C-alpha cells in the first residue's frame, strides 16, 4: 500500500534549490548595481573621486563601459542560472569572480560600495557551489 504522503524533495534538495535561486537573484541584482555604477560614471564623470597615484590608471569613462558590459553579462548569467545548467553555473561563477576583481581594482574610487559588491559576489559564488549544481 502506498502512502499518501510523498515528499516532493528531500531537505537537502530544497536547500540546494534555494541556494541556486538565491545565487541567480544575486547575479541579477549585481548586474543592476554594476549598470547603475556605469551609468553614473557616464552621466557625471566627476562623481567618482580621482586617485592621482594609483597603480591602475583607468579613466572614469573606461570604468563606465567596464561596469556596463559586466552588468549586461551578469544579468544574462543570472537569468540563465535559473535554468540550473552546469554551463550557466560555470559562467556565473566566472563572472562573479571577474566582478569581484573589477571592484577590487575600483576600490579607491568608491571604497565602501566596492567592498559591499565584493562580499555579494563571493556570497553568490558560495551559493552556486553549495547548491550542488556541479555534482548533478
Automatic annotation (TrEMBL):
Q: Which UniProt keywords apply?
A: Membrane, Transmembrane, Transmembrane helix
Task: Extract the Pfam families matched here.
Answer: DUF7144
- Where does the record place the DUF7144 domain? 21-131
Q: Which residues cross the membrane?
A: 20-43, 63-82, 87-106, 112-129
Give yes or no: UniProt keyword Transmembrane.
yes
Protein name listed in UniProt: DUF7144 domain-containing protein
Organism ancestry: Bacteria, Bacillati, Actinomycetota, Actinomycetes, Jiangellales
